Amino acid sequence: MREPYNETAMRMPAIFFGHGNPMNAIQTNGWTDAWASIGRAMPRPRVILCVSAHWYLPGTLVTAMPQPRTIHDFGGFPRPLYEVRYPAPGDPELHARIRTLLAPVDVEADTQWGLDHGTWSVLVHVFPDADIPVVQLSIDETQPASFHYELGQRLAPLRDEGVLMMGSGNLVHNLHTYAWGKHDPEPFDWAVRFEKLAREQIRKRDHQPLIDYESLGRDAQLSAPTPDHYLPLLYILGMQHEDDAVSFPVEGIDGGSISMLTVQIGG
Fold first, then answer.
1. pLDDT tens digits for 173-182?
2. Closest CA to 190 of 203, 207, 174
3. At how many degrees (to 10) do helices 117-126 and 30-41 cross?
4. How many CB atoms are located within 10 Å of the residue 104 CB?
5. DSSP string, 218-256
6. Cα–Cα distance measured from residue 249 to residue 227, given in angstroms and rounded to the nearest whole number
7. 136/115 Cα distance (integer angstroms)
8. pTM above 0.85, yes or no
């Protein structure tokens, strides 16, 4: 029987991964090596709770099955990518705790989804043994950015209960300008500027401009033309405590317009 959530003495970090191209799941490169180093350096979590850009729908749902399936939610990639399985167990009991923390938000227990590539393409490198329970929390597409930041604040106590809080998306994510198949193109100037601005605000712990990112002008509009890959970052920023250090253990821009920045809070 799993021990109660409140019997851990170590606060877990909260971490946002820029997951980028799904091919990172089966490749070895600077980003995947850095992900593996993060996993080796952090204390072993009891459970991983992931907010993935790829579970974006009208509602707040939590996976509540004992054995979540590996979802290949993409098309047009080589066969080996579709053969990847990440057979981590689930944690159905975590739904009740999340429901309590997020009340009065209605949190639905989901038994159909599983682990999408926003989660497993990173975790195959961070925790390759797939022996830590993994739960996903959906992003409610009907709610403003402030709602998602506030949910992160409400979920912050889980960090003291052995839960690794993980967001997976990309700070800059513009597929319309992504250099598919081109070798190491120069990043777009707007992508560089927006990432620099975000890093400065995160370092200063001035989160409000990032919550109001849609008002930050053209660079923000080009960097986050849709909210799905950006919003997971706000969950992680909302979990920051006053004494938490901030680090950026993974950096770089892929294809000119995909930021691979990782933001680690605490740890």
1. 999 999 877 6
2. 174
3. 70
4. 5
5. HHHHHH-SSSTTTHHHHHHHHT--TT--EEEEE--EETT
6. 23
7. 7
8. yes
